[in-house]
Amino acid sequence: MDISVHIFSLVWLLFLWATTRYSVQMFQQNSYRTERYNRWLRSTGEWHMRANVLSVAAALLFVFVDHWLLLLVVGVWMAVIAIAELSIRYKIPIAYTMRVRRLIATRLVITAVILTLVHIYAVEYTLVAMMLLSVDYWTVVAGAVISPVERAITRWYYNDAKRMLRAMPHLRIIGITGSFGKTSTKHFLYRLLSERYNVLMTPGNFNTTLGVVRTIREHLKPHHEVFIVEMGAKQRGDIKEICDLVSPEIGIVTSVGEMHLETFGSVESVARTKFELIDALPEGGFGIVNIDSEAAARYIADNAINVRSYAVEAAEADYRAVDIQYGSAETRFGVAKRNGLDEGYATHILGRGNLLNITAALAVAEYMGVSLESRRRAVRQIEQVEHRLSLRRDGGITILDDAYNSNPTGARMALEVLSQFETDGCRYVVTPGFVEMGAKQYDNNRAFGRDIALSRADRVYVVNEVNREAITSGLRDGGYSEDRVVVVASFAEAMADLQPRLRRGDVVLYENDLPDSFK
User: Fold this and answer.
1) CA–CA distance, 368 with 81 (Å, rounded to integer)
2) pTM of the complete model
């Protein structure tokens, strides 16, 4: 066989692996649900779809032209796509779980079988088949083929996790959900409760049903006394499904916002989903909700829900952070309660949003019998949660890393910290804006631009094209000078312009999905 065919086949195998890995990664991040994956592909996967179309078109042309030059063009095209894909660092990389391995193996088996049949019965269409078999949707096909097996395996794991929880009747389970703030609240509560209890919390982003199941089966031990469960949701019923598994005694709703509106449709639907946690609490359980979140407060009032509340702004809250004194090294505050005032708290964690999260954790810790002195000690020792308005210094440059916050309220609080930061240097904002907000995405990003204009930022980097028009329009609305706005296609481009400008004393805010790569 001609050596060019061998080389082409090797390049195609690399191309097949790169596109398969990418599509499986996205399928995994969309909870292995076809409708979510399709929605993602339509909204953010355009370049991949174009690559698929062009590759197949070139292969079809080869059937009629059959020229080595066209084969070379297709081969170079595949190599460029494969190398580009394999070189990208993603914020959430693919996790090679057993399910992912089964999915990849199934897709590769399907590819091998179809390619073999084409080669036997219609060899002239082999190149076309190779290109068609590289299309992202074969991952969906593979998922459908093995779905009965996956359902059976998932049910077995779910029942096994249920069995383990039943074997620990004295385990106290706390659920935390919200459009934002839930991960930070989880970490803060873990630190506070560890003063008295042996505590387990769901790690990282393990906030789906399968993530909770995996945490129970791999990490829950008989000596644990408290289990803190972060509960994420992208559609109605997701929180209820987790609650049906763990049966929480205590529930915290950190916020109701405009996240995932593409799947929820409305803020009211988001609220109903988040409050599935409160609905699941037993009689006598402890539910507490952030009423600085207007949508959450409105849902409580409209549905006459009996819960405790916490806030920084709302004076009627049962637990409220008060007497806040921001300093260069720490923030001091107290917590006003119905039955008095707890004074003497201090933390080096930044921002009003984190004070909200700490207040929620303090309310639950008090309910669970952690002493005031222990609470004060724990708050002082609370560590920053990476990528959630965490602060680090690099050669005299201050980095405010809010890369995992992607909502208007959290971003507004981060900008508030930036504007109040005591510095003689310049302030920079690097952001791609907000996503997954449906019809409100443009308006929210335009408002974000206006907020940046008021934040005392000296220069703004608007990354990617998705929200560029909205953010720059908002900056203009706020009277922000256009010569201080830099629009770039990637984080790398932003850094190429920013890094030579940085001087000791400067402050940089990374807001949403940075500094990791994204598309």
Assistant:
1) 55
2) 0.80
